[in-house]
Structures are given as C-alpha cells and as structure tokens.
Amino acid sequence: MKDYIICIGRQYLSGGKDIGKMLAEKLGIDFYDSKMLRDKAKELGIEEGIFDMFDEKPTKSFLFNAVMDPYSIDSAVNEGKVIEAQRRVILDAASKGPCVIVGRRADKIIEEDANVISVFIGADIEDRIENYLKTERVSERAARRAVERKDRERASYYNYFGDGAWGRANNYTMCFSTSKMSREEIVDMICHYIGRVK
C-alpha cells in the first residue's frame, strides 16, 4: 500500500466526519465515509446490503443467535460475510493511495499494510446532545439516551475483536475534542503532523 492512510474514529455527533472531509480536501486525497464505502462495495461486486448489515453496531454472538433467532446459522454466515466484505472494501480503498477513512475499524483492518495515522474525535456530551436536538424533536433526556446508545454501539463494534480500545488515547496517534478546539484548528494540527512524518 502507498503512503499514509488517515483513519478517523469518533464519538457520535462530535464532528469527526466533517473533519475527515476537511482533511481530505485540504490534502487533496480521497475521502471515504459509510456512503462512499458502500459505493465501493458495489464496484467490487459485493452483494447489496451485506456491507452495511451491522453498520458499526456490535455483532451478535452465535450462542445468542441460537437462542433468539431460528435462522441463527444464516445469521452467523452473514456475519462472516459482513466482516470479510468490510475488510475487502477498506483494503481496496487504502491500496489506491493516501486517503481519509471514517469509522468501520479501518485503522485495525489496515494497520499491518499501511502507514496508519489514527485519529479520535470526541466532544462534550452536552455539545453532542445540542447537535442532536438541532435535527430531532425529542426531549433532552431522550437525546442523551440516543447519543449514549450510539457511542456504546460504536465502542462494542470497534472492541469486538479485542485488538483495540475505542476512544482510549493509547489506541490512537492523536485525540481531539471539538468542544475544546475548532475543526479548523484540529485539521491544521493533523496536517502539521503529517508534514513531519511523511
């Protein structure tokens, strides 16, 4: 694989995807979020719907499926298909050259094959609740539950294989809070770092 790949993990509604787009634009490199990766999956001929079946949610154990789901064998097979589909798509994206990939455990999938710069973006819960309420007409309490649930799903998904710890500083090259710094400042700092290590 060529050069560096910037992989961005993020808390829900922290602005991580926006920062990824800004980085890609400033550096003149490709950008992949869930939509772009789904498009790439189609290009690779991956069955529609397989790639985003779990969409950064924790996969269920085979034992749980066996108890709760009469189609547990099919579920387990699809689970394997999902993992392999995501791996194929992310490795293909990274093989094209420097890029920014948001989410999907990309840092762990490609860490042995590329120069990975892993970045985690967080923000204070109050700021993220405020962001949620800009688009959803619910109570503040309901907004808090939704934001916290999404974070739990992302953490469970990332931690599923036991090769990393979602949101822990020692798992990433850099960590930032959009509650403490502007998106522009964060992008500038990441670009400065890339300039030093290239």
In N-to-C order, the SSE pattern is: EHEHHHEHEHHEH
Radius of gyration: 17 Å
User: Number of helical segments?
Assistant: 8
Largest sheet: 5 strands, parallel
Q: What is the 3D form?
A: globular
- Report strand order across the widest sheet: 2-3-1-4-5
- Helical residue percent band: 40-55%
Topology:
Blueprint: E1 4-10, H1 16-27, E2 30-32, H2 34-43, H3 62-68, H4 72-95, E3 99-102, H5 106-110, E4 115-122, H6 125-133, H7 140-159, E5 174-177, H8 183-197
Parallel strand pairs: 1-3, 1-4, 2-3, 4-5
Helix pairs in contact: 1-8, 2-4, 3-4, 6-7
Supply database-style keywords:
198 residues, alpha/beta, five-stranded parallel sheet, 8 helices
Give a written overview of the molecule:
The protein has 198 residues and is α/β, with parallel strands linked by helices. A five-stranded parallel sheet has the order 2-3-1-4-5, sandwiched between helices. 31% of the residues are buried. It has helices spanning 16-27, 34-43, 62-68, 72-95, 106-110, 125-133, 140-159, 183-197, and strands at residues 4-10, 30-32, 99-102, 115-122, 174-177. Residues 60-77 have low confidence and may be disordered. The chain is globular, with a radius of gyration of 17 Å. The two termini are 14 Å apart.
